[in-house]
Amino acid sequence: MSDDPIRLVTIGRIIRRRWRLLAIVAVVGALVGYGTSVLFPPRYTTSASVLLSGQWEERELLTQAEIAASSAVVDRAAAALGWTGVSGSELRDRVSATAADGNIIKVSGTAETPERAQRLSDQVAGEFVTFAARIAGDDTDPDAATGPEALRKKVEETDRRITDLANAADPGQTVEGVQARTELEKLRTALQEAMKKLDEANPATSKAGMVVMGPAARPTGEAPPTRMQLVVAGALLFFLFAVIGHLAAARVNRRLRTEPEIAAALGSALLGTVDVPGGGSAHRPKGRGARAWIRRLLGVDTRWDLPTPQTSGDEAGRRIRYRRVCARLRNQLPGARRLLVVVPDGDEIARRAAGQLVAEAGSDPSASSSNRGYPMLRVVEVSVSQPMVPDRDTESGALVVLSAGNWTAGDLAGIAEACADGRHEVVGVVVAVPVRDRPTRSAGHPPDDATGALAARAHATGGSV
TM segments (predicted)? Predict the structure, then answer.
């Protein structure tokens, strides 16, 4: 594909012409995904919610979520569960905690079975509440824990003592009695305000209140990735890799596709382009055996990157193209009576075009006129890997017939060098283009003698046709 941009039509052509191969690759990817799901058993995940009372800032909630999934909490949960072969470090990879709206910490646990996932989430949530209460001071020194309560009792006793003193201080309406009772009431109010501020400043009473909001729900489905997800992901991944592989192979493909590039590689002029009907099957190799059968089964025996053949015109229009090529040969080499037609081995389209050229040159009505007939053509097939052209005999040059998109510049340069070694000058190039034949043909359809004309030819040392 050289440097052409990748378009959707290109991907559509890959899918249309390689759908068998892509389907098999997708099935292989699905099997790989299924095998992965067997190696990694299914997991189940559930969550337990912990409600935090009081006013909490967002950063404080995030801190509590980190504490819930910390090793201090998970290790205690692992010790309480006592699962064989499961350590606290392994459980830390299965436990997570997030801060939700409404001062709620969601503790999630993942295990091999729904029952274990439920137990893990409940146990970690309970250990988190216990650990948070211990940090807040609920389970610290008993003297420190009972200090605020003892102080509250002292204040209550002092309040009662103040009441007694107020009642005993000069029950009359003297000035001294009124002042004493006023001072005692001020003292009572100051003590109550001090206790209120103490309660508000105590974190154990404002934020230590945590409660687990019921047991975790038992999960009913597997946690992602599920077996079905792995199977689908494997099929899609292999399918995409196959498509990308086709695009990459087409990107690095250096086969020549245009007539000027082909003519430049052979060092000669382009004499014309001819149509070959039935081009779809012409690209299909004729090999036999198990390998060829597998290639046909997978649909890789034909090229996908070649453009879709256009619908051909009628037989008369196609023959005009061949006659024009023969006329250009006659005009370019007026004294030439014989020419060698070189066809790359394996190029079925070019072979058919060469046969039609031989038939048109042999049916020239002006062949009896002096220096007016078409040259006689002799076809030889040349191996591209080891090109060998017969030595020059009575031929006046070589005409190269080939199809576009099948050969690189190096392949064509080798053919040109083989012609030069055989003392044949490349007098022209003819490019054969596959086309789709029309369903109905004209009444004046000539006999199909193109293939028959090639039946009598030789390959490397063939005789005249």
Answer: 21-40, 228-249
